[in-house]
Amino acid sequence: MEKIRIFHSADPHGDMEAIKTYSEHIKKEKPDMAFIAGDLIDGVFTESQLEAYAKDMLQYKNEKEKLITVVIKEAKIKGEEEINKIFPLALLPAIAEEELEDESIIEQPNKPKGNFLSTKKLYEISNDPQPPIEIRSAITRYLNAREAYGKHTQTGKESMESQYRDIDSILEDTNCLVIPGNHDGKCLEGILLEKYIHKQGRTIKGIKIAGYGSSNARPAHIPGELLEDFPFCKIGNRTTKEVVYQGSEAGWFLIEKEPDIAVVHTPPMADEGIGVYFANEKPYLLLAGHIHQLIGVQKIGQNSHLVMPGKLGYHKGTEGFEELKTFAEIHMEKEGTENIALQPEKILYHQIKDGKIKPFMEYTLKDGVPAEKKYLSEDCVLLRGWM
């Protein structure tokens, strides 16, 4: 029987002091595994930048809708065939879905070039005297608004990268692994490459780990182009054509990976796909985050446990919980070397307060079932009504 110790945290939301305290604790205690399950940062703009971003984003959305309305109106008056000669109507869906290729706004390395219609075509139309003045004017206003909005996106990307570089430096010389949350961007992978396990699997001490981050909850204060995706998928049997899975890609990814420990940002109660995975596949541990108020452990089936760590950092939007910063320390027994079995013995919750690690709560488990819960901090009163 081998003893395994795991540190599990989530949602620091850019609280660098909390991340530093957590990192130093990892270095000191040397657990077998350590995780931050998403939302490493909270935002990308200062207050004044956010105000300008919101204004320009609204202007961009309005001009987009006006352009589409003008083109459809002109097509009804002059006929679709006639308008299509001067303004390809195929551009409209790309404009509506914001899928115009424009690398001056934001690089889209994962998007095949052939799938996007370039803004260059719109510039050509706006400078051509043949199209109706209404269309040319609408295009010009749209492109100006798009350019103004795009500058904020680039500013946000630079801020995001700077914060991730700081976090990468803080976590240096630790074995902490990370996944993105719904506040995190696609650029996280390139900066924390060695610690990044989103859509990846690893094996540590013979234990299979798989991670899947992000969420379908999209924060309005971060440009959507920057955020990590959380796609939906539908899987069918090629022979019978029967749908065998329908839900988030996260659920299907974990079903295919069959990890002993799954690390996700979105817990099963907040996503049907991950819920289906957890209920049916039953990993030994499902380590999640996202819901700040949930701090505790829940057993499903014979030997499967969901562990919610609370939030690692300060977060203004969590009413009553703003200052509460917690993470979990999971003690497990590992049996076997190939077909392993994992059984949690004890889960300690620690609180970061005044820059120090303090006891918060303790679960003792008997045969995998939470048998005793001890409250070790006066701040545990905040948990009333939660896990």
Number of strands: 17
Strand proportion: 25-35%
Total discrete domains: 2
- Tell me the overall shape: elongated
CATH class of the largest domain: Alpha Beta
Question: What does this protein structure show overall?
Answer:
It contains nine helices and 17 strands. The chain has 387 residues and is an alpha/beta fold. The protein folds into two domains: 2-44 and 159-383, Purple Acid Phosphatase, chain A, domain 2 (4-Layer Sandwich); 48-155, no CATH class. The strands form four sheets. Strands 5-2-1-14-15-16-17 form a seven-stranded mixed sheet. The protein has a six-stranded mixed sheet with strand order 6-7-10-11-13-12, with helices on one face. It has a two-stranded parallel ribbon with strand order 3-4. A hairpin with a 6-residue loop joins strand 8 and strand 9 (243-248). The model is unreliable at 103-116 (pLDDT under 50).
Summarize the structure.
The chain is of the alpha/beta class and 387 residues long. The chain has helices at 16-29, 47-78, 80-86, 91-96, 119-126, 133-170, 188-191, 249-257, 272-281; strands at 2-9, 33-37, 100-101, 117-118, 176-179, 200-204, 207-212, 232-236, 243-248, 261-264, 285-287, 295-300, 304-309, 326-335, 341-353, 356-366, 369-375.
